[in-house]
Design brief:
alpha+beta; six-stranded antiparallel β-sheet; 22% strand; 11 helices; five-stranded antiparallel β-sheet
Amino acid sequence: MSPVAVSSVAEWTRACSGAFVPLRVHTAAPAFRASLSQVRLGPAVRVTRVVSEASTVFRDQDLIRSQPRDDVLISLHRRGRGSIRQHERTAELGCGSAVMYDAASPYALSFPGAMSEVVLQLPRRTLTRTGHTFAGLTAVELPDSAQLRSLTMLAASIEQPGDDEAEEIGEALVGLLRAVVRGRDTRTPATDPRLLAEGIRLWIDENSADPDLTPERVAAHFHIAVRTLQKLFATEGESPAAFIRSCRLRRSRSLLAGGASVSEAARRSGFLDIDSFTRAFKREFAQTPSSVRADGVRAAGA
């Protein structure tokens, strides 16, 4: 995308909506100037440098209904002050801070004065395959870590790479971001229990098809005790084992709706026993796996 420079709110609204997701913009400044330049790193990942004067940029429920998107965005703030509000939380933006927000839910970015930032944008599916929500990670400053510092440095240094190099850089950024949201550091796990719990849920969601995945393996992966893992999940009124089962069942339902056989859906979701799978599926969804598959097949043929 060629660099864009604007001198009105209307132009900035069009530029931001084209570069990111459909948005609205307000400003009280009598004269407004802003610019952005974007690099596409393969088909899914974008990095955008943004410079603007005072403004509020927001995505409301009307835009979400009319123009839904599943993008996840991370503001890597470079200069000036600002804030991001989503899910009834507000995170302050300052030099060096990093905050995630989700295009599937309303949000507002407010900047009281001149600012600059780098925005990393990617589809949710690149972080997790089954549509996990990011409510616990949005509008919360991501904790400092070796991975976050590497992510920020790489994103800020990108120019316009060649086609082959672009995809490799995009994959590197996604890998670093996965490590950040999982709350893992080369030295110590994230200290914020809410961020750590959400990172663990993301990782379980992504790996739940492994039939050998257990709470013990999850705890070992994140270098925490099983009791600590259980306490993290207890705040949400569930157990790690129940969450693993729920992820597998959601995955199996998606496969069945797409036409997979009952045995295939069970196997690809991490269930080794068909009878146990069928009983768990009926308890969770009040439907049999075969009826969900039949509904999906009929819908596809309609």
